[in-house]
Amino acid sequence: MGPPHPPGPERSAAWRRWFADEARAERPDLATLCLLIGAEADGALDEAGMDAAQIELDRLAGELPFRPGGPQAWATALAEHLGGHCGFRGSAGDYQRLESSLLHEVLRRRRGLPILLSVVWMEVARRAGAHVYGVALPGHFVVGFGPPTRHPTTAPQEARRSTEFEEQVLADPFDGGRVMTGPDAELLVAGATGAPLDPSMLTPADPLDVVLRILNNIRAWASARPERGDVALWAVDLSLLLPSHPARLRYDRAQLLVQHGDFLAGATELDAYADIVAPVDEPAADRVRQQARAARAMLN
C-alpha cells in the first residue's frame, strides 16, 4: 500500500454514517467497524472489498479443527493455523506502517500491530465457536481464551481448577499466537508499567474500546508525520462517533483544524470544548477561549 488516498467526501460521509450506526448497535460488529476504519483510510476499499475481507475471516475459521477442546487447545490450534500455517505475525517495522492498523491490509499482508492481529485471532476464533476476547495488557494487546477471572499463576494453588477447560489462557498474535505463561504476562506488564500484574488487567476488552484504541494508534502514527494531519483528523472524527469517548478529543480536533488552516471551524470547536471544561475548571476554559480568539484572529 502506498501513501493513503482517502475516499471522496460523499463516500466518506456514507462510511461515517455506517460506522456511527454500527457503533450504536446492540452488539457492535468488531470486524465491520475495523473495515470501515480501513475504508476511511483507503479510497480503494469498497463494500465488495469489505465483503471479501469478511469472507476471508470465514474461510480461515473454516480451516480450524472442529471445536478442538478447552482454552489451551483453542489457543494452540489458532497459533498453529494462523501463526504457523498462514504466517500471521508482527515485527518492529509494522509500527511504522499505516496499513498495520487497517484490517483489510492485515488480512492481505498477514502482518500488523498487536491489536489488529488480535482482531484477526478473535474474529476467526469466534466464528469457529471459541470463547475468545481481547485483553488490553499495558503496552501490548493479546487475546484470551476461557473464563476471564484470574490468571492461573495469580491464584493460590489450592484454588485452581483442575482442568484446562476452566482456566484462562493468553496468546500473543504478534508473536505468531505464542501461548503465554503466567511469568510471560507478568514480565510484559512489569516492563510496561514497573508494577506487578493485577488480575483486573486480564478482563475482556469491550469491542468499542478496541476500536478507540485502534484509532488512537492511527493518530499516534499520524502525529509523527506532520504531513499526514488529514489522517489524524479523520481518526479523531471517527472516535467522536463512538457512543463513549474522551471529551479531550474535541480539543484535539480543534487543534487539528487550526493546523490545517480551518481557523473558523477550529475556533468554534475550541469554544465548544471550553463550555464543557468550564464547570470543572474555569481557568482552563479561559485559556481555551483565548486560543479560540487567536484562531479567529488568523482570519484577518
TrEMBL record:
<dbReference type="Pfam" id="PF13371">
    <property type="entry name" value="TPR_9"/>
</dbReference>
<dbReference type="Pfam" id="PF13369">
    <property type="entry name" value="Transglut_core2"/>
</dbReference>
<dbReference type="InterPro" id="IPR032698">
    <property type="entry name" value="SirB1_N"/>
</dbReference>
<feature type="domain" description="Protein SirB1 N-terminal">
    <location>
        <begin position="54"/>
        <end position="216"/>
    </location>
</feature>
<comment type="similarity">
    <text>Belongs to the UPF0162 family.</text>
</comment>
<protein>
    <submittedName>
        <fullName>Tetratricopeptide repeat protein</fullName>
    </submittedName>
</protein>
